[in-house]
């Protein structure tokens, strides 16, 4: 059984008062950072190899370095806490159990990019998380860790927790910025990129919760310490979220490059009496994998080489009792509902994918419909305004690739083979 875990962000989650500033500590990493040159802080994050933990995997230090200096404009940090991807459930428990890691990371990041205002954009439905964040920010202000002259360094920082209205599209960074400004959340045309013209048309860094919360440990323990974990190009640790048909679902913090087989060993395996059928390496917007991919290293390069994406490391596990067509339909219904409607490929394409998949799942389709949904997906992929459309095509293409026979079985028997009224096992037909 593997014991490869690196409890850093999750180290104190089991403590009853883990969310309080007294349990967290005195922000030693932030004190250290504010005694450094801001460019040295950026260089340390570059040297660590930290890549964005929100899905895209863009080098964090490089993103910070894009902010122009001496431009006479205010700079902003915006933390993307609008966790909405189906299957993704790492940022919410992180903010609940360890919010001060995020607040300390915000102080360090804001200092590095010369920002005096920072925002945390939180998904509006998670009211308990919003309250927890507000409490943590109040504690930090009371200690003098936020506000004027932080740590007697001459650096000022105001931090605002902002509640979103529950739109998946606002997880896209420019749609988030529009929403934060009070407009309808829709993606912006790029360029200009947020680093040049972001919030209020000023240079802005947008980073994921886990990315920012990882910064204090990098500054506190050193870039080499962080870079010593993970793989050659995917450095450090990350939170892997196991959900679905697994014995012990939950958050497993481990170095990038660990395999699902190792994680399943630690999680007690697939639920008793069953076996894995398919799984997502990074949430529903990443192409699905099967049991043949159990030993693929979970890093950006290895997962990409096998035709999927590491994404948010949301490992949704499905056993042999699950209908692939039904699962893909449910995901597609989500994307059709959450499409902002700005671009035609996504607005129209996700709607028609949903309609055809409904017919297929009901056993009323034909083999030609498989060509239809892949053609629709091809016309969305790379043609939509943002990545929502691309994400919606991932389960379509990958499910047809790996489970074409299951699609065919639906209209062979005139319904879902997993429907008890039709059959509990294909072999009974």
From TrEMBL:
Keywords assigned: 4Fe-4S, Flavoprotein, FMN, Iron, Iron-sulfur, Metal-binding, NAD, Oxidoreductase, Quinone, Translocase
Cofactor: [4Fe-4S] cluster; FMN
Organism of provenance: Nonomuraea aridisoli
Catalytic activity: a quinone + NADH + 5 H(+)(in) = a quinol + NAD(+) + 4 H(+)(out)
Family under the similarity heading: Belongs to the complex I 51 kDa subunit family.
Pfam family, one: NADH_4Fe-4S
Organism lineage: Bacteria, Bacillati, Actinomycetota, Actinomycetes, Streptosporangiales
Domain of life: Bacteria
UniProt-listed PANTHER family: NADH DEHYDROGENASE [UBIQUINONE] FLAVOPROTEIN 1, MITOCHONDRIAL, NADH-UBIQUINONE OXIDOREDUCTASE FLAVOPROTEIN 1 NDUFV1
Enzyme Commission no: 7.1.1.-
InterPro entries: ComplexI_51kDa_subunit, NADH-UbQ_OxRdtase_51kDa_CS, NADH-UbQ_OxRdtase_suF, Nuo51_FMN-bd, Nuo51_FMN-bd_sf, Nuop51_4Fe4S-bd, Nuop51_4Fe4S-bd_sf, Soluble_ligand-bd
GO molecular function: 4 iron, 4 sulfur cluster binding; FMN binding; metal ion binding; NAD binding; NADH dehydrogenase (ubiquinone) activity; NADH dehydrogenase activity; quinone binding
Enzyme's top EC category: translocase
Name of protein: NADH-quinone oxidoreductase subunit F
Job of this protein: NDH-1 shuttles electrons from NADH, via FMN and iron-sulfur (Fe-S) centers, to quinones in the respiratory chain.
Swiss-Prot/TrEMBL GO biological process terms: cellular respiration
Residue ranges constituting the NADH-ubiquinone oxidoreductase 51kDa subunit iron-sulphur binding domain according to the UniProt record: 325-370
């Amino acid at each position: 059984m593997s014991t490869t875990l690196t409890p850093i962000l999750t180290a104190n989650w089991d403590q009853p008062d883990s969310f309080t500033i007294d349990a967290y500590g005195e922000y030693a990493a932030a004190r250290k950072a504010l005694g450094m040159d801001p460019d040295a802080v950026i260089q340390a994050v570059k040297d660590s190899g930290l890549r964005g933990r929100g899905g895209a995997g863009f080098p964090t230090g490089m993103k910070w370095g894009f902010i122009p200096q001496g431009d006479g404009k205010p700079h902003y940090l915006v933390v993307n806490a609008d966790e909405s991807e189906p299957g993704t459930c790492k940022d919410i428990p992180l903010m609940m159990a360890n919010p001060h890691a995020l607040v300390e990371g915000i102080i360090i990041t804001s200092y590095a990019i010369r920002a005096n205002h920072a925002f945390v954009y939180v998904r509006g439905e998670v009211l308990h998380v919003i309250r927890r964040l507000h409490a943590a920010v109040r504690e930090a202000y009371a200690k003098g860790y936020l506000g004027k002259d932080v740590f007697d360094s001459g650096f000022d920082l105001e931090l605002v927790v902002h509640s979103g209205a529950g739109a998946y599209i606002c997880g896209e960074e420019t749609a988030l910025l529009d929403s934060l400004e009070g407009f309808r959340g829709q993606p912006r045309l790029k360029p200009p990129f947020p680093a040049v013209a972001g919030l209020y048309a000023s240079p802005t860094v947008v980073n994921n919760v886990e990315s920012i919360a990882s910064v204090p440990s990098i500054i506190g323990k050193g870039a080499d310490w962080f870079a010593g974990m993970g793989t050659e190009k995917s450095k450090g640790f990350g939170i892997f979220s196991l959900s679905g048909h697994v014995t012990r679902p939950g958050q497993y913090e481990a170095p990038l490059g660990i395999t699902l087989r190792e994680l399943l060993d630690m999680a007690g395996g697939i639920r008793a009496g069953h076996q894995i059928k398919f799984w997502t390496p990074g949430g529903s917007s990443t192409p699905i994998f099967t049991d043949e991919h159990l030993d693929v290293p979970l890093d950006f390069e290895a997962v990409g080489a096998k035709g999927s994406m590491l994404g948010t490391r949301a490992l949704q596990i499905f056993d042999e009792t699950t209908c692939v067509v039904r699962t893909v339909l449910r995901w597609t219904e989500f994307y059709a509902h959450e499409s902002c409607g700005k671009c035609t490929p996504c607005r129209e394409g996700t709607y028609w994918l949903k309609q055809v998949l409904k017919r297929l799942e009901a056993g009323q389709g034909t083999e030609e419909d498989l060509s239809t949904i892949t053609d629709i997906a091809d016309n969305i992929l790379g043609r939509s305004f943002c990545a929502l459309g691309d994400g919606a095509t991932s389960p379509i293409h990958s499910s047809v690739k790996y489970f074409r026979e299951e699609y065919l079985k639906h209209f062979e028997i005139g319904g879902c083979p997993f429907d008890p009224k039709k059959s509990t096992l294909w072999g009974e037909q």
